[in-house]
Amino acid sequence: MQTYRHSSDRELNRRQFIAAGVGMAATLAGAGEGGWKMRLSTSSVMFVKWPIEQFCERAAKLGFEAVDIWGPLFKCTHLDDIAARLGGNGLKELLAKNKLKLCGFSVYAGRYPQYVELLGAAGGGVAIRGSEKPCKPEELTARMKEFLEKLKPQVELTEKHNSYLAIENHGHALLDSIDSIKAFVDLNRHPRLGIALAPYHIQAGKMSVEEAIAACGKQLLFFYAWQHGKGIDQLPGHGPTDFTPWLTALAKIRYERYVNPFMHGELEPDAMETAVEKSRRYLMECHAKAVRA
Predict the structure, then answer these.
(1) pLDDT tens-digit profile of 184-210?
(2) Alpha helices in 122-243 (DSSP H)
C-alpha cells in the first residue's frame, strides 16, 4: 500500500536536504584553506624543575606531538643533561618511548654549533637563536646582509646534521619588526634558514602579528603561541588575545611546523601543566574556528 506524505513533510525534508548540502559545502570550503593541520609542541624551559624524562612523559600525556628542548637559559639544564647523560641515541629512545617528535633545540647566543651534532643524532629539528643588535632603518638592508653572511658557517652545519636554523625576532634587535622580517626574507636564499616568530615582541612593538606571519611566509620555521602580557597571561587562552586570526594567518601560508604555546616566568610544574593544558585545549578550539574561516 502506497503511503502519501503531507506537503509540509516534503517541505521539511527539502529544507533538511538543503541545510545538509550547505553544511557539506561549508565543510569542504573550510577544508580548502582549512585542511591545514595544526601541530602542537611544548618547551622544556617552562618545566625546569622536572628532569627531561618526566617532562617528556608529561608532555605526551598532555597531548603534545613534539618538544622544544632548551639550552642553559632561565635555569634550564635539560639540553646539557641530555648531552652529558643520554646523547643523541638516548634522546631518540626517550622520545620514541613517549611517542614524541623532536621539534628542536632552543640555544640562542650563537650556541648552535655546540649542540648541532646532538640535534642531528637525535633525528634533526630546528635550532632557535637570536639575531644581533638593532640598527637605524636606513642601515637595515646592509646590516641584514652582513648578518646573513656571518651565519653562513652555521647554515653549512644544518646540511651536515639534518637540521634547520631559525632566528627569533626580539625587541631591540636586528630582527625586531615587520620591515626587518621582510628584509630577512628578501635576502635569505637558504632553505634551511628561517624565522622563529615570537608574537609577544610583535605585539610589544604595536605591530600586526597576522602581517608578520604573512611576511615570514614559507621561511617561518617555528611559531610561539605567545602573547604580550605578564605571568600566565602570556599563554593562549589566559590573556586577552584571540588566537584565531593568528591561526587563520598560519593556515593561509600553509605553515607546516609546530605551534608552541609559551610563556616566560616560573610556575610550579603542576600549576604550569594545568595552565598549558588549558592553552592546548584553547588552541584546538581556535584551530576549529580558523579552518572554517
Answers:
(1) 999 999 999 999 999 999 999 999 999
(2) 140-160, 178-187, 199-204, 209-216
